[in-house]
Amino acid sequence: MPPQAVKLVVCDVDGVLTDGLVGLDSDGKETKRFCVVDGTGIAYLQRCGIEVGLLSGRRSEVVSRRARELGISIALDGVLEKREALENILRRTARTPEELCFVGDDLIDIPCLRMSGFPVAVANAHPEVVKVAEYVTRARGGDGAVREVAEMILKAQGHWEDILRRYLK
User: Fold this and answer.
1) pTM for the model
2) Contacts of 39 (CB under 8 A, 6+ apart)
3) How far is CA 93 from CA 18, 50, 69, 119, in A?
4) Model confidence over 82-117: pLDDT tens digits?
């Protein structure tokens, strides 16, 4: 399915929105690094009426905080059965699998990628994930991969010129 049909983008977090590394500070608090340009891409999608969600296998307050910063209301963490959670997200948003772009990187993401109309793997995804993806980003997870996907969708849907116009006038 081409990116023209996408109305909902759901991203895995670790390895997609982050580089997949988890830091622990001296108090045992978890840290993650998020790519700012990915956040900007998410904002562009939202500005153009495309919903965005996060779906993570790890439980993390950091993910919840990042979702709030980006205005993402669909943010589930600690989810080990991602396909079932994604089906619930589709029902909640009244979207079909054909309208879904799922972005993943690891084996746990394969069931979600298979049900997605536009399945995307990041450049450093596991080889089995790459096999089920329709598109593989040039950028690695945590290094602009989600921005790359956002721009592709926005260009395919004719929204990119509107984004540019805001900055080029």
Assistant:
1) 0.96
2) 66, 69, 70
3) 25, 11, 20, 18
4) 999 999 999 999 999 999 999 999 999 999 999 999
Assigned CATH topology for domain 1-51+67-96+132-169:
Rossmann fold (3.40.50)
Residue type, 1: M
Strands, DSSP E only, in the chain? 8-11, 23-24, 30-31, 51-55, 74-76, 100-104, 118-121, 135-136
Report the candidate in 48, 49, 52 with the shortest Cα–Cα distance to residue 17: 52
Domain boundaries, the chain: 1-51+67-96+132-169
Q: Is residue 108 within 8 Å of 82, Cβ to Cβ? A: yes
The amino acid that residue 100 corresponds to is L
In this structure, are residues 161 and 146 in contact, taking their beta carbons and an 8 Å threshold? no
Which residue bears the tokens 């010129």? 161
DSSP 99: G
